[in-house]
Design a protein that fits this description.
six-stranded antiparallel sheet, alpha+beta, about 35% helix
């Protein structure tokens, strides 16, 4: 794969969703900009408050850059997948990488010290730390095929025209 392409959600994940937008792109840094532009356009259309659009742009860019970096080091031929959920009460974005052994959540020890460790347990993943600072609604999951970052923002006034 050498470019960016729209992907059918059900083709990407075996889902039966009829709405939403998915992008699949080669792990090249120049494609991150396209993902950011699409994210902001869809967020604006979904009704995300104008004051949060920079946060959406930065967070999607950070998540996609992280996935591109993982792919370039461990899965060069595999595409990065970005899914934008169908319109609802929140604007939701998922960035999936196909690199196993990525960072996993560190359990909260009861003193608010939860965080993220790389699978090796050595260092915190800086990209995920940046995302934690940007996005209140953030989930990080390691799945058998790789990792998924899920982010969400409140919707104020949907404009689906």
């Amino acid at each position: 794969m050498t470019g960016v392409q729209a992907a059918e959600p059900d083709a990407a994940e075996g889902r039966d969703e009829q709405e939403g937008v998915s992008l699949r792109f080669a792990p090249l840094p120049e494609h991150v900009r396209t993902a950011r532009l699409v994210a902001v356009a869809l967020a604006r259309r979904a009704g995300v408050e104008d004051g949060l659009l920079d946060e959406v742009r930065l967070a999607v860019g950070e998540a996609c850059s992280r996935a591109v970096g993982l792919h370039r080091s461990a899965a060069r031929g595999e595409p990065v997948l970005v899914r934008f959920a169908p319109p609802g009460d929140r604007f939701r974005v998922e960035v999936a990488d196909l690199v196993t052994g990525g960072p996993v959540p560190k359990p909260d020890d009861g003193e608010g010290e939860g965080g993220l460790f790389e699978a090796s347990g050595v260092d915190a993943d800086m990209g995920l730390a940046v995302l934690r600072g940007l996005v209140d609604d953030l989930e990080v999951e390691t799945v058998p095929a790789g990792g998924v970052i899920r982010m969400g923002w409140p919707v104020q006034h949907p404009d689906y025209s």
